[in-house]
Amino acid sequence: MTTPRVFLVRHGETEWSLNGRHTGLTDIPLTANGEKRIKATGRALVGNDRLIVPKQLSHIYVSPRKRAQRTFELLNLDIKDPLPWKQHGEKPTEKPVCDGCTARVEVTENIREWDYGDYEGITSPEIRDIREKQGLNRDWDIWRDGCEGGESPEDVTKRVDALIEEIQTKYHSPVIGKPKGTPPHGDVLIVAHGHILRAFAMRWVRKALPDGPTFLLEAGGVGTLSYEHHNIDEPAILLGGAFIIGEN
User: Is the pTM of this model over 0.85?
Assistant: First the structure.
């Protein structure tokens, strides 16, 4: 039976992700190495016989930030319709190893990075020093405390919950449990950022953000969410999936 998935792709490496600076609204590009690694991710994980099968995607959500949009471009999904932004760099020269993707690409504020407010552009140790001088708790935890001048965990929960409800209602509920191979397949791709994607994964499995995630998503990394027992009421994190092979 069909069990639709959500693929979470964190944007590639930037200068700020390299040195641990919090990057929310600031629009900075991928590094050259970041672009190379995303291209490699696309070659390894995107294709007719790979983890992400473009023709099985029903919808694609991308953050408004250029670093996420460039990451999506480099995955090389062979999108048929024009992108909803001006191309941020050269198109991949390699021919896509897939039949092409007809899913609509949507830019949404609901999956932009956490608004770090006063903590934009600085590291966690610097944030703790600032908070101590302000008379705030030094053991700062974004999942519990949020960001001064930015978003709280409640703010982030509200917008990722809205996106989860939309995905489950529009793309997953209509297909889950149907015979396998029956279109539409209902898979969804999200290309965004580290904190917001981890928040999304936590809320997917109905965990409160203040509990804090015990998992990471590296720059350029890919995660998968799905369901147990082909049941829309049993959302789960898919820790690892089997390789797809051709049938004899």
Answer: yes
